[in-house]
Amino acid sequence: MKKTLFSLAVSACLGLIASPSMAKDEWPTDTVKIIVPFTAGGTTDIFARVIGDHLQKAFGKPFIIENVPGAGSVNGIAQVARSKPDGLTIGIASTSGLAINPQLRPDQVPYKPLKDLIPVTMFDKVPNVLVINSGKLPVKSVPELIEYLKKNPGKVAYGSSGVGTSQHLAAELFQQMTGTKITHVPYPGSARMVTDMIGGQVAMTFDNVPLLLPHVQGGKLTMLATATAKRAAFDEKVPAVAEFLPGFEAVAWHGFIAPAGTPKEIVDRLAAEVQACMKKPETIKKFSEAGAEAVATSPKEFADYIAAEMTKWKAVIEKANLQVK
Amino acid sequence: MDLLQNLYIGFQTSLSLINLWYAFLGAMLGTLIGVLPGLGPIATIAMLLPSMYSLQPTSALIMLAGIYYGAQYGGSTTAILINVPGEASSVVTALDGYQMARHGRAGAALATAALASFFAGTIGTLVVAAFAPPLTALAFEFGAPEYCALMFLGLVGAVVLASGSLAKALAMVVLGLLLGQINTDVITAVPRFSFGIPELMDGINFVVIAMGVFSFGEIIANLGKPPEHREIFVKKVTGLWPSKQDFHDAAPAALRGTLLGCLLGVLPGAGPMLASFTSYSVEKKMSKTPEAFGKGAIQGVAAPEAANNSGAQTSFIPMLTLGIPTSAVMALMIGAMTIMGIQPGPQVMTTNPGLFWGLITSMWVGNLMLVILNLPLIGIWVKLLTVPYRFLFPAIMAFCAIGVYTLSNNTFDVYCAAAFAVVGFLFNKLGFEPAPLILGFVLGPMMEENLRRALLMARGDWSVFVTRPISATMIVLAVGLMVMITLPAISKKREEVFVDEE
């Protein structure tokens, strides 16, 4: 608590010091539009509304959410990239929109993530977990799974929430690091996939925690490991895949972006306020209940993270020859 | 006994004054949203979400559920009154409901829809309370091959929807299938027929086509008639209430629709919509006067409305027992639950019995609210029809255009709907009925996706469709239906029955 207050105070002070320009004092002059590249009501949209609510109170101007869904979040992000860089249009983007799709299907993505957009701040990480239907796979641990897959190449099917999602690439990365072959069965979104997992139509998946956890607790599915670098906070007893495959990490993340050319003062001020929001205990609680880990990064940290993710997924896409022409 | 006790716990929660108020509020908001095509339930609920965090989780969910039914019901109202089906499941209601309205029986159609919905809602609630676990098991039996077979059966059944010529109905189904091919392939992520237009990469929205070919097409056709012709159906409004004969005709249809809806509603994705289409086809097949369908048959309103509503009820089962959303509104409710600190999933029933059973019983309360709210409104809705057409149609157009725009906040959808308006007008003139097109458009992509997923999982082995019992049964049914339709002798008899209007 004390630490939170302290960091709040620090970020507030930093905000004050680093603000000699006029733009900072005046912004926001008008309603700020947050473009969410997903349909209303999804987890990302709800998170955006929670943060938007905070920004609205902090800046005293309306922050409205505009949902521009489509093309795996490419449409919405493209609209942010095309917008006037005056700080009145900002957006939200995720792993697939920034680090995966631009490389998976470059012909269909009209923006270059780090050239046409300015990363503002990352606000959450959503861990993926490796879950199996133990009625279909007679294994109890990651090493057993790897061994089983090696003996049965191509015979086991994994479900994903779509081509080019972090869940899909997590499984690709897993195959590349273990030298196994699993059949990809993509679904449009996770809901149907989870039903099919429980029904035993597909045997394994890497997916977000929230939808899977209740069925793991209910005994219908078995969680073998988390796809996080270290063991995840929601259950320390579950090992991380990285313990068996050093360096394995596949998380989904979300952050704020702004069109290239947006004044630095505005980006910094926005980042500071989102960070303040993400450090509030109630935000942390809300996010963790929805299965996400609240994070707060500076614009620079977010940019570096995106660059690292792009390099990582680019290698996976090239190695698996996934690019869509 | 358990059931009674559970219902008791539920009613204790849902009949508390505060929850009754939220159920009412939700039903009212939902009706408004449903009646104004310019407002979608999802956008509205999303806007309301932040203010809901402060509510008791139970109250908030009851209100959300109220909005969900209300919107569904309101969608039927516009389908009947002005031929604007707000969602796929009310397309069927528009077929005969709008024709009833044109014959001055809008009141009877609306009352039938309300009462059939309430009846179906009551049964649906009991089914959810008593049979949630076994019905959940049914949903698990449905893998990709079963879905594919079910869609196939639905598509063959689509031909029955048409009241005109068989060839035209088939052509419309095929056109619907082709339009459904415009999207990004789920399995390979390759965009198809999008011609580099990013908006087409996710396919054309169902609402765009429905508004274009149904509503706008109808409006243009109406404007093409001389004014006195145009308003004639409004002037002869007879009785607001269904007659004794109407009740006699509608009751068994509503019962059959309810049962079909309860079963099909459990299947995620297509449940309520397939239920309303199927129940319409069943009624038409069973009826002694199938030629009356499409011209204002009251069974054609009662059955799909009942099926749609009981389907909407049982479609809550996967969400309640598993935490898996079967529609966007439910995804929103699950989002709201997690934000409020309740983890949706199988354990809700035991950790939060008040909420679980309260939500189930509030379904019934919500349906009751809808009837109370809507029966008195029928008079007002019918009066609305007496507004001169020259004022009415610009208003309809404007609301529809706003509604289409808010689908994804993009003008492209509005232009698309305008293009489909021209197409819809041509269909209207040439006597092609749009309902089979819509069914082909909605079912086609789902069928394709499940077909390919089934083959992917069976590693290319087509026998998977006949070796699994559920899928085999449905394929046999579909083939049987197809033989019935195509056998020359029967088809000749069919033409006698399904004669063209002219």
The main sheet of chain B orders its strands as 1-2
Output the structural class of chain B: mainly alpha
Structural class of chain A: alpha/beta
Q: How many helical elements of chain A?
A: 13
> What portion of the residues of chain A fall into strands of 2 or more residues?
15-25%
Largest interface: A-B, 60 and 53 residues
**Can you tell me the residue ranges of chain A where pLDDT is under 50 for at least 5 consecutive residues?**
1-5, 10-23
How many E-type strands of chain B?
2
Radius of gyration of chain A: 20 Å
- Give the second-level CATH assignment, the architecture of the largest domain in chain A: 3-Layer(aba) Sandwich
CATH superfamily of the largest domain in chain A: Bordetella uptake gene, domain 1
Order of helices and strands of chain A: HHEHEHEHHEHEHEHEHEEHHEH
* Arithmetic mean pLDDT of chain B: 81
How many domains, in number, for the residues of chain B? 1
> Secondary-structure element order of chain B, as H and E?
HHHHHHHHEEHHHHHHHHHHHHHHHH
Assembly type of the chains comes to heterodimer
CATH T-level fold name of the largest domain in chain A: D-Maltodextrin-Binding Protein, domain 2
| Highest CATH level, the class of the largest domain in chain A | Alpha Beta
- How many helices of chain B in DSSP terms? 24
What does this structure look like?
- The complex is a heterodimer of chains A (325) and B (502).
- By secondary structure, chain A is of the alpha/beta class.
- Chain A has two domains: 2-126 and 252-320, Bordetella uptake gene, domain 1 (D-Maltodextrin-Binding Protein, domain 2), CATH 3.40.190.150; 127-243, D-Maltodextrin-Binding Protein, domain 2.
- Chain A has helices at 2-17, 22-26, 43-59, 74-82, 95-104, 113-116, 142-151, 166-178, 190-198, 209-217, 264-279, 281-289, 299-320; strands spanning 32-36, 63-67, 89-94, 117-132, 157-160, 183-186, 204-208, 222-226, 251-259, 293-294.
- In chain A, strands 1, 2, 3, 4, 5, 6, 7, 8, 9 and 10 form a ten-stranded mixed beta sheet that branches.
- In chain A, helix 3 (43-59) packs across helix 11.
- Chain A is globular and about 65 Å long.
- The termini of chain A are far apart.
- Chain B has 502 residues and is mainly α.
- Chain B has one domain (2-497).
- Helix content of chain B is 76%, strand content 1%.
- Chain B has helices spanning 2-14, 17-35, 41-52, 57-82, 91-102, 106-141, 144-161, 166-180, 206-223, 227-230, 232-235, 244-264, 271-286, 299-314, 316-322, 328-339, 348-351, 353-385, 389-406, 411-430, 434-457, 464-467, 469-486, 488-497; strands spanning 183-184, 191-192.
- In chain B, strand 1 (183-184) and strand 2 (191-192) form a beta hairpin.
- In chain B, helix 4 packs across helix 6 (106-141) and helix 5 (91-102) packs antiparallel against helix 6 (106-141).
- Chain B is globular, with a radius of gyration of 22 Å.
- The chains are: A alpha/beta (325), B mainly alpha (502).
- Chains A and B meet through helix 3, strand 2, helix 4, strand 6 and helix 9 of A and helix 3, helix 6, helix 16 and helix 21 of B.
